[in-house]
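Slide 14.
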Amino acid sequence: MPRPRIIIERDAVALAERAAERVVARARENTGEPAICLTGGSTPKRLYQLLATPEWRNQLPWQRVQWFIGDDRFVPPDDELSNIGMARHAFLDGCAPPENIHAIPTDAASPVEAARAYEQTLREFQARHRTDGAPLFDLVLLGVGPDGHTASLFPGYPAASETEHWVAGVPQAHVAPFVPRVSLTLPCLAQCREMLLLASGHDKRAILSRVLAGEDLPAAHAQSARGETWWLIDRAAAPESCEA
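Slide 15: predicted structure.
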């Protein structure tokens, strides 16, 4: 696969604006039912809040876009730890039709059961709406954790090396908050036209140095198999090796 490309923005605000451009562009390019896979975290939250403003909200074809989530904590959707709950509160509720929001069913009996159910949701969507062989997702948004994890794929954990299933239960998290998770796997995340990995802030600089150097970490293996992969970072997060 080609190496991911890197875009460095001046700050977190500019980063959110550039990411919003990519969300809108990918949503509008697909005249059928575009699928966008969201992620959790403070940097994406800034993007989501931006998309809820009139300037950006009015550019999205809300009736057609299908919203998925790359991973979530195994908590109720109204819990403050819920990724989909954060996305709903930040921009989806009031903009997206409820039937277009595809949450991981965290009311299942276990993370493994939730993973099986969400994988079925994804495969059914593919069977109905990707009959032309197009990638599952038009855009996948991801972040990177302090240990090099992305989504809820932690270094050394089985889910990070899963090759058959699209979704995996993660009974124990490697970093706080220490709650079970459910995560799309690398083979599933790779089925996209564009993958956009977001990182901002000086606290991300050290792990980005390792990831971008190609260390064997989940975030370093997150790449689109069907399109482009971009790292969108701000100057505070940019390692010296790639500063503009």
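Speaker note: The helical segments are 12-29, 42-51, 54-57, 83-92, 111-129, 186-189, 205-212, 218-221.
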